[in-house]
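pls ignore typos typing on phone
2'-deoxyadenosine-5'-diphosphate + seq
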Amino acid sequence: PEKERTLIVVKPDGVQRRLVGRIVQRFEQRGFKLVGLKLLQVSEDLLAQHYQQLRSKPFYPDLVQYMTSGPVVVMAWEGHQVIQSSRKMVGHTNPAEAQAGTVRGDFSLHVSRNVVHASDSPEGALRELQLWFQGQELLNWDCVDQFITCE
Ligand code: DAT
Ligand code: MG
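k done
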């Protein structure tokens, strides 16, 4: 098993709708390890870097307004094939196409309010983790509690 890492962001609508706990729970339940977590207000500058390929799209101004409309919860998750698996857990970009059982399929209706972000490739995950986290904010840790089952 590889120690792959990915970036997951609960977008402002997810925070405002109190969905953070349920989203975190899905990743924990699946068996992934939380290695970074913070609440922050995104700057337009960071967003422009994050969505650099989308800057010329007609929906980009609305995307910026949405993503800066309130705090987001930024997470780094680690585990075997976490990038690919988390994309499946998050579901199709357009919630109308997202399957039930996915975060978007269970909690959202429209592409402009799709609750969560997940990196889409190893290169993307590395780039986005470096963009959203300082190196020392990502922790390596092991389960050391002798009274519970560890990995
Ligand atoms: P994903 O978030 O599934 O990786 P993406 O990278 O293509 O999708 O787009 C990033 C975000 O931009 C997406 O989560 C929501 C927004 N977006 C994409 N296509 C859109 C559209 N046609 N209309 C409005 N917003 C859109
Ligand atoms: Mg994307």
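The radius of gyration is 15 Å. Residues 120 surround magnesium ion (ligand 2) (CB under 6 Å). more later
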